[in-house]
Each structure stands twice: as C-alpha cells, then as structure tokens.
Amino acid sequence: MHARDHWQLNPRIDFLNHGSFGACPKIVLQKQHDLIRSLEQDPIAYLAPERDLEPKLDEVRNKIATLVNASATDIAFVRNATDGVNAVLSSIPLQPGEEILITNHGYNACNNAAQFAAQRTGARVTMADVPFPLTTQQAVLDALDSQISPQTRLILVDHVTSPTGLIFPVEEIISMAHARNICVLVDGAHAPGMLQLDLSRMKPDFYTGNHHKWLCGPKTSGFLYVQPELQHQVRPNVISHSANRPRPKRSRFISEFDWTGTYDPSPLLAVPAALDFMRNLYPGGLVELLETNRQKALLARRILCDALAMEPPSPDCMIGSLVTIPIDADQFCRRGETGAPAETLQKILRWDHQFELPVFAFEGKDPHCLRVSMQAYNETSQVARLARILLSLKR
Q1: Pick from 243, 291, 271, 351: which is nearest to 14 by CA?
Q2: CATH, range 27-275
Q3: What does pTM read for this prediction?
Q4: 156: part of which helix (H) or strand (E)?
Q5: Per-residue pLDDT tens for 206-253?
Q6: pLDDT for residue 197 is more than 80
Q7: Buried b (16+ CB within 10 A) or exposed e, 231-268
Q8: 29 CB contacts (<8 Å, ≥6 apart)?
Q9: 3-16+284-393 belongs to which homologous superfamily?
C-alpha cells in the first residue's frame, strides 16, 4: 500500500501544500467519527469535565508532553497556534511604551495579533527584517539583536517560518533574549511532526504548536506550553466556568483552557490515533518519518533550483519538510494577464496543471515565492513535474 492511499486527497491533484492546513489520514478521521458518535450517545457524561472529559484530555496531554519533552502540567490545549499566540498576547501585562519584537517572516495572523495587543495597551510593535535569501542562521540573530531595545518586553518568533519555510535558531534566540530579561513566545505552528522538540532544553517562556499540520491530526487541535511561573498570567481567549469554579487537583491554567464553553473535543481526542499512525509509517518511527520528509524537501528544492538555475536561498540546516524558493512570477505568466503575478501563476498551476501550492509576494513585493511541502504521501516526481511545467511557462 502506497503512503498516499492512507489519505483521501484528490488523486487528480498534485497536493504540495500540506503546510497550510495539513491533511488527515483516513484512519484518524474514522477515529474522530467514532468519538463524535460516542459523544452524541451521552453528551452530558462525555462533555462534563468532572465526568469523562478531563481524564480523556489528560491522556492526550500526557502524549503531547512526551512528544515535546515537557511536563504535562505545563501543557494546555488550544484550537490552533494562532489561538495560543492570541491567548498569550492578550494576557501579558504590557505597559505603554513597551515593545513587542516580531520578524518580517512571521505569520501574518500572529503579527496582526501583536499589533492589536500593542494598540490595546499603548505598547508598540517593532520588526526585525530578516533577509531572504540568506546564507547563515546568524542573519536571524543579527536582525533580532539590532532591534532589541531597553523597552523590548517580548519577542514573538516563528520556529518554522510559514512564508519562507526556514527553521529559525530559537534556542539561541531564547538565550539571547533571556540574557536581557526579555520573554519569548515561539509560534511553533509547523514544528510538531516536522522537528524533534525538546521544550525542557529549549526553555521558551511560551510555545504553541498545531496537531493538525505535520502530526496530521484533525483540524482545530493544538497546544500551548507556558513556563510554570507565568501560568498565573495566561488566560484563554474565552473566559468560562473555571474562572471561579476551581477543579480539585487541577491548576486554573489547565482548567480554564480545558473548558472555554461547549465545543467538540473529538479533534483533540483523536490526536493519539494520529501519533500512532505517523509513528507506524516507517520502521524507524517518527524519527525516520521526519528525516525522510526532510530529505525529500531538500531534494525538491534542489530539483527546482537546478531547473531555474539558482542557488538554494538558505543553508540546508534551516530546512525541515517545507521549502520556499524566490521566483519572478511575472516570467511564468501569459502575456496579457492583468492580475497580480503571484496570484496569476498560482491559478495557472492549479487550474491548468493540477498543482496545489502557494505562490505569493513575500512582504508584498519582489521576489515572489513558491512554497512546496513534502509529507509522507508526496513524491519528488511531483516536484520534477512542477519543474518541467515552470520551464515550459517561462518567457
């Protein structure tokens, strides 16, 4: 059985965009459907925290804690990484004049959340301009270091950048920030299932990640890690019963995030099935899966760069299973096209050649970027076909 047969993706599409929303395997979806059926058979028993829900959530929490090497008591659940980023930004007591430092590679939704938090409190957002292409990880550290000021209160940084697919040196960033008494919030949306995580060694103040991307869990499933001494500050985006109804032997941090009002817990409760599935794809388990996807991504980048006669835009050490190459999208669009070049090229690849992948203007300007994801169901032959199509379109 080929790996792609475990997913129900459209076989007529070369789906090279796992990085956007993930894709859930059939067996995991079946587990989620079973969970929903159980919920609807007895909704009160299933959803009441003091009955069945808390032990079920704790089972998932323990598995995620093991995956990221953290204490389960430091892990709360969120709908996605953007939810986690917003929860932290809305909870930190920012003062007028203090600064949140972000980067130009940050996820737009989370950078927007930083702007909103600053506007609400009188703080302000500063931005580190990390170049792309770049030749070393040091360029990331230098860009951030140049923007740190005595007013910097928090650094919001991606572990794996969404637009450019770069693994940022977060451990070094955290060390640099902590040496100056600055907190770090890591947006790890892409990291679980792409990288081996060790939060106990990394020591971020806050770290949030998705289960629905590279772990292939159902949508609306993620976690938020918070250092114990900061948990009293961090509240969920929706305040509910646990604000004044403490649960025995449970911190308010966990209790509040466990219950933010009526919701469907099946995406979270199906995560162990996703973990089991991904670990069993290869004899070497998750470690082999991560390395296999990374090698496919590096080869995919080499195929595209060779075809377009360019050098890789970043060192290999900054690549996981997501790669972005800079292109001039205008060169691949038909004459007379009136739309934005990146959007036009994406439409041509999707509707004329059956590729699903993002093409966009990084920072709203040239160079444009083309991003490719390599999950277990992807083959480098798909990328080779993409390279041939791009060459055939080039003017």
Answers
A1: 351
A2: 3.40.640.10
A3: 0.97
A4: strand 152-158
A5: 999 999 999 999 999 999 999 999 999 999 999 999 999 888 889 999
A6: yes
A7: beebbbbeebebeeeebeebbbbbbbbbbbeeeebbbb
A8: 8, 218
A9: Aspartate Aminotransferase, domain 1 (3.90.1150.10)
